[in-house]
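Every protein is a chain of amino acids, and every chain bends into a shape of its own. The fold becomes a row of whole numbers, each drawn from a learned catalogue of backbone shapes. The protein below has been through that process, and both of its lines are reproduced in full.
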Amino acid sequence: MPKPILHVAIVGAGLAGLAAAVGIARAGHKVTILEQAKELAEVGAGIQIPPNSSLILKRWGLLDQTELYSVRPRDIVLRSYHDGAILSTVNMLPLEEETYGVPYLVIHRADHHRILVAEARRLGVTIHLSASVMGIDFEKPSVHLKDANEFHADLILGADGLKSNCREQLLGRPDPPHFTGDLAYRIVVKADDMKKHPDLIGLTEKPAVNYWMGPNGHAVCYMVKGGGLYNIVLICPDNLPERVNVAKADLQEMRDFFEKWDPRLRTLLGIVQETTKWRLQDSKEMRSWRHRAGKFALVGDACHATLPYLAQGAAQAIEDGAVLGALFSKIESRTQLPGLLAIYESLRKGRTTKIVQSCKAVRGVFHLHDGEAQRERDRQLTQEAPFDGFPNHWADPVFQKWLFDYDADLEVECAWERYKEGNFPGVAGHFAARL
């Protein structure tokens, strides 16, 4: 009996929607993306592609192209805010590449997005722009578009981000993003401008992901665009008006917050010409990501938005897409769709929840005020070998392996075998394929 070719509609053409589209289309199914924007344009600046994500890109045949627009940082470096003294270093090149078989990359978000768009289209994914979803019929399933048309598919995936309309439709109530108390200044400066300052040349010549940790905030900086641009993210307490999530920032206000920080960081901020500040928000954990009818589920930030402090937001979206793609390569009957979605949620929900919680823990480590706790943190970072629970999460040998050594295909293979044997909790098992 031939395997069915299903039609999957994905709401949203961000990284999560595109990753799901690529994964499912690679499995041989029809995919349509419904995107409310008039044109595809990903906002933002630099993002990180850790090994758990680059492994997926390698299997999708996209890693070589991604590397053309990326930088390979040698190290992740944690620094003191006082003077930039190095407190902890984790080698990424070559050590992590030798350990996990794939590189740790940093890239401009727009480049990452563009590569996924091109691959989705190459695989035959249809992308409808100006397609605003006003409602969802979870039973049919179908989506009601703003132009009054109704769009039908075998499955609908909500990948419409942090401010997800699909999530609110599923919950049946408003569910606005949750304020975290932090905001981010997002900045890009030219590497050539940095090289005019002798104390900044080292930051351009030795690619690294540099973190400065200080009271109530931190800074993270790294090269993008093949080393031509320097990406800067500054984390501070949120002082935006309640109804404003993005605003043009005052440069002096930004510099004042960091006036007692490392002189090299202050020099770097002195060459900034303009910036915006973005409220950092996340979402509260949901009881379930899927509808009981078994024809709808959420992916990406729509169901597991997190603070960016482990640089895993985009990576988790890619993992979602890889898991869905691997599951769709296994499906033998339309009747297995509810079971497929149950397996997807089971494989992804616990992991993403742990990452959301770990990001909050990183915030607590990074933002310590001077004092006993800060001194103990620094003592552990500088004097002890990494251990389970180490203050540098990337150096923690247990957490790092759990984070970076994730294999979506292997996870699905094991889960599907259990499902076929009737041993996967909450789903029907192999006999459902014969109904």
The chain is about 35% helix and 25% strand.
